Amino acid sequence: MRVLIASEAARPGRDNEDFAAAAPGLGVLIDGAGAPAGLESGCSHSVSWYARTLGGLLLAEAIETKLSLADALAASIERVNALHSGTCDLRHPGSPSATVVAARVVGDRLEHLVLSDSVLVLDRTGADPVVISDDRLAEVNRKLDDPDERPLLGTSEHAAGLLSRVQKHAAYRNRPGGFWVAGTKPEAAEQALTGSTPLDELQAVALLSDGASRLADRFGLMTWPDLLAVLDKSGPAELIARTREAEASDPDGARWPRGKASDDATAVYWALTD
């Protein structure tokens, strides 16, 4: 098996709030939920601290125990809580949170877990790819957004709208009828999308933060088979480079309205066959 990983912050000099790692038979990707300017948090730790701490603990839990991926995630959230419950207000709605994607080989199958809006792509032998992403956050955003108001990136109106939307997320985060993320509630792990696929049906699997899936699912510049072909032939760094080129061609979001001009981008490409 061959695993390639690339990760890049949204812009130079900024913390990368993504985390990715692999071990024999296991891949993990965490995408920390970046906070817009003006959003309060009850935590003294950064989003990047949360992402890499949760990711490292999940990697260990999924390797060293026989827990399901969902139970391993729940245990990891509990362990992160224990690390900062004495210094931070874990009840605060602005506490750091993250999306999670994990894939693990168990016997002759590949198990997966997807929580929130990062993406898992299963490259199937002789068939179309299967794309797995939790769209509950997108459904909430559709409820909150006014489609007739799309301020350009970099304007005060855009910044104010983004802050307002994220503040409104608190009424929907980790609640039935809303959306679920890894944060301070271990029970959120029970809401993850999980499943398994026979290994002999797969050529590869890709784990993508939403900053690395944009060319296919937001910009429409690639199909999923196109994206997998780039990963296979040129690797994750090339996918991120092409994403940056597209973002730079639309700096104010006039063509592709979005919350951030560029986002942290992380891709894990795991080839399961020689």
From TrEMBL:
Source domain of life is Bacteria
**Name used for this protein in its record:** Protein phosphatase 2C
Q: Matching Gene3D superfamilies, A to Z?
A: PPM-type phosphatase domain (3.60.40.10)
* UniProt xrefs under Pfam families: PP2C_2
Domain named PPM-type phosphatase is located at 24-218
